[in-house]
Model the fold of this input.
Amino acid sequence: MRLLVLIASLVLLAVGSTTAQDKHFTQFYAAPTYLSPAFAGTTIQSRVSSNYRNQWPSIPGAFVAYNVAYDHYAPEIKSGFGILATHERAGSGALRSSSVSAQYAYEIRMSRELYFRPALQFTFSNRNINFNDLIFGDQLIRNNDPTTVEENVFEPVSFFDMSSGGLFYSPKFWFGASLHHINQPNESLYPDRIGLLPRKFSLHGGYRFNAGSGGHYRKSGKEIVVAFNYKSQAEFSQLDLGAYLELDPLVLGVWYRGLPVKSNNLGYANQDAVAVLAGIGTDRFRFAYSYDITVSQLSVGASGGAHEISIIYEWANKRNARLGKRRIVPCAKF
Done:
């Protein structure tokens, strides 16, 4: 366990230069193990979650992403395990990427109310282009004639990569960091070229306010949660900042995405979107829908914004349900 803590701590410091961006979710806490492997097993026992995102649907070739995950906490060995599957497509579905990840997190009780969870993740990914879905200039000239003089120079590519994460939490706050694609594998679809998958660094956290009369560990049915997620990949950086109002079982939220200062050597503020969310949640089941209102130079009318849906189900046996009351992770629901 000391070796795992050392490895996780070292790789979190190894942020390098990068050239592209991973997909993102507005409801990033509804995809916790995608955000960081340190969230694997942050439930009483078991959880299954799914996420769907349709970004800029008014633009041809919009980005569509899917996420399915299962994670489990084993209290006997203070360990969390997770399996994560992702799929995304862009460019009218021509460019497709899929991955499967295995995750492990170890939970360390540092004091009566403070825990630390170092974690590792190993991923197998595949990227490919369906050449038949592409449309070239000579086809347009000939009124979409299916034949083209262009040659298919693309080949599917598969690769392994490694990620790490760390998470501190208490009954009221959490703070964590993650680093994905540590080994920067080659993801180029051209056989004779090198295209390194850039590292992605994320810093995230939040605080939960009890707005009702619940006890120290007991939820009152009225909660206010403020949270943030900052991530950086290559010359790109982004901040998600927002708050939730949890009125059991209703959840309402509003988020800002972007950086309100000049960034990325662009000479102007990196404004992206304002998102609104509505969801319902019980002890076991949660469902939410969010919509991104584009505030960048790409107007919401031109882009169509972004739609996102998340579904989460949690369960535990009686023994683990009793044990779980001693460790409450206060993270946002969506």
